[in-house]
């Protein structure tokens, strides 16, 4: 795998972090981020707190609440073992998918496995597109300017192709830009335009990459196609929301009508021959 930045999110620089120690700010921010993400997944457990790098009383209480949620002694101390529990969804998403009989099915499996991990972004220091999931998808980058939909798609492709002993960069360049991938698709004659798909929906297949077109050579969002049903693509996509935004807050499974929107498809067919 080329996208291994997620590994930096799975560990702390010290064995123990607690109130009263000279903790590293980066370690505390990681812990606070994961506490907030736990509350997003398990509403009401009481772990949402500020992300400021200060292990004060609020963070200590949030840690104790997480320990109570797990049925552990609530001492407010983050050990390596507890941090492993905090970050288990990320590890499982990047390492837990099983290889399938063919690459298209493996891509779908990997995308679904990420979906199960509840990837969300966080707002940190008034910046959207932040947090451990975003950094994992975006090579350590985060912040309002770092729209992460393509980072998510290429992380899925990276994992899936690696399971089959292949390299996704043979298919497309590493990029966080939908325009770069769309232009590459045109150059390699693998970008199927929406107008052709409306005539023959069978051209699009599971595992292909959807590109939401704004204008002829301008794409603003991307997703993994996991099924084609009637006039719709079933997708798994990052940095979106219920409105289908290209700057949402998480990874979701969506239904998109290709007869009502300009949805181009980066096809894997030539690469799989």
Question: Can you tell me about this structure?
Answer:
By secondary structure, the protein is an alpha+beta fold. The protein is elongated. Helix 4 (88-95) packs antiparallel against helix 5 (103-116) and helix 5 (103-116) crosses helix 7. The strands form 3 sheets. It has a 6-stranded antiparallel β-sheet with strand order 5-10-6-7-8-9. The protein is 37% helix and 19% strand. It folds into 2 domains: 5-86, Muramoyl-pentapeptide Carboxypeptidase, domain 1, CATH 1.10.101.10; 95-272, endopeptidase fold (from Nostoc punctiforme), CATH 3.90.1720. Strand 6 (209-215) and strand 7 (218-229) form a beta hairpin. It has helices at residues 25-41, 57-70, 80-86, 88-95, 103-116, 132-137, 149-163, 178-187, 194-199, 269-272, and strands at residues 16-17, 78-79, 122-124, 127-130, 191-192, 209-215, 218-229, 232-240, 250-257, 263-266. The two termini are 22 Å apart. It is built from 10 helices and 10 strands. It comes from Chryseobacterium caseinilyticum. This is Peptidoglycan-binding protein. Pfam families: PG_binding_1. Residues 49-86 form the Peptidoglycan binding-like domain.
């Amino acid at each position: 795998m080329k996208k291994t930045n997620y590994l930096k999110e799975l560990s702390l620089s010290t064995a123990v972090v607690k109130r009263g120690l000279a903790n590293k700010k980066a370690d505390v921010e990681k812990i606070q981020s994961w506490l907030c993400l736990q509350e997003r997944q398990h509403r009401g457990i009481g772990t949402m707190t500020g992300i400021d790098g200060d292990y004060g009383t609020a963070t200590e209480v949030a840690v104790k609440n997480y320990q109570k949620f797990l049925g552990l002694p609530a001492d407010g101390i983050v050990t390596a073992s507890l941090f492993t529990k905090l970050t288990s969804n990320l590890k499982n998403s990047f390492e837990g998918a099983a290889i399938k009989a063919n690459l298209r099915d493996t891509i779908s499996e990997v995308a679904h496995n990420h979906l199960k991990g509840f990837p969300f972004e966080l707002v940190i220091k008034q910046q959207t597109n932040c947090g451990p999931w975003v950094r994992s998808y975006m090579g350590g980058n985060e912040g309002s300017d770092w729209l992460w939909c393509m980072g998510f798609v290429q992380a899925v492709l990276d994992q899936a192709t690696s399971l089959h002993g292949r390299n996704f960069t043979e298919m497309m360049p590493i990029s966080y830009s939908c325009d770069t991938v769309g232009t590459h698709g045109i150059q390699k004659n693998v970008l199927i335009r929406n107008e052709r798909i409306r005539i023959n929906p069978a051209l699009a297949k599971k595992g292909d990459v959807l590109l939401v077109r704004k204008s002829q050579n301008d794409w603003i969002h991307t997703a993994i196609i996991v099924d084609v049903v009637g006039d719709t693509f079933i997708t798994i996509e990052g940095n979106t929301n219920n409105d289908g935004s290209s700057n949402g807050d998480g990874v979701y499974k969506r239904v998109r009508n290709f007869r009502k929107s300009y949805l181009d498809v980066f096809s894997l067919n030539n690469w799989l021959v």
